[in-house]
Amino acid sequence: MAVQRSMQHSVGSTNLADLLERILDKGIVIAGDIRISLVDVELLTIQLRLVICSVDKAQEMGMDWWVNNPVFSKSQAQPELTEDKFDTIMRRLDGLEKTYQSAPTSD
Could you tell me the pTM of the whole model? Predict the structure, then answer.
């Protein structure tokens, strides 16, 4: 006697949040090339590569350019402007203004 089993298909709808979560978790690469030629002479080539993924996935792939970038690093914060530095800047600015004002003008 043969037993028949019916297959059940999961036909649940995928919402945008689920789709985005999957893309960020796995990552997606979009690549394209644009070439402009005139009479078999290549004038311009543009290669586009776009990687969309989560920060964790990017670090896993070795794409962690922000780690050593001083713009994104808290340890590389800009030094504070102390009163001494401010006074030095003001003296230099005054000197430059005096030099500019005393320079001969060409009419």
Answer: 0.42
